[in-house]
Amino acid sequence: MKYKVIDNFLPQSEFDRLQNFIMSTDFDWYFNILINHNHDEEDKTSYFTHILYHKMNNYWMPRMSNFYREFKIFEEMLDIRAMIRVKANLYPNTKEKITHAPHVDYDFKHKGCVFSINTCDGGTILNDGTVIESIANRALLFDPSKPHSSTSCTDQKARINLNINYF
Q: Which of 25, 75, 93, 134 has the fewest other C-beta atoms within 10 Å?
């Protein structure tokens, strides 16, 4: 699979519900000093995440946030057989747009979805240089075992998305 972009991925009422929830003061964000495992120590950028679901292997119980049930619609919409991880990302506004170091989510073949919660001038850069803009209710389906990069934004308070890894 090269990649696929689907605009208006969720029904509008469901998207509005999720957007209002994740952008509310009821949603918990956790500070991360490193954006990914290739983060340069000289890079002073950081971001906030919330791990909604994470299953490392078949022997351990998955780590699941109390908020995960709010996002279960993605299991059906993406026809997921097995979930690996669902992570909410919040990249704070920066004065200039910053492209973060290329990385892979996991080093084995699986599927990925970057789902944009808000519209901003940030985006995802794929390994072939293609830039996918962050547009609210847009899903980018791609192979996250290939290098890709995230960016910050300059025109909104933050770039907010979901990163979903699955089979």
A: 25
pTM of the complete model: 0.92
pLDDT band at 62 (very low <50, low <70, confident <90, very high): confident
Tell me which DSSP letter residue 120 carries.
Answer: -
153's tokens:
């934004």
125-147, pLDDT tens digit by residue?
A: 999 999 999 999 999 999 999 99
For the chain, where are the alpha helices, taking DSSP H only? Answer: 12-22, 73-77
Residue where the block lists tokens 């979805």: 113
Question: What CA–CA distance (Å, rounded) separates 131 from 65?
Answer: 31
Q: Which CATH number fits domain 3-55+62-166: 3.40.50.300, 3.40.50.410, 3.30.420.10, 2.60.120.620?
A: 2.60.120.620
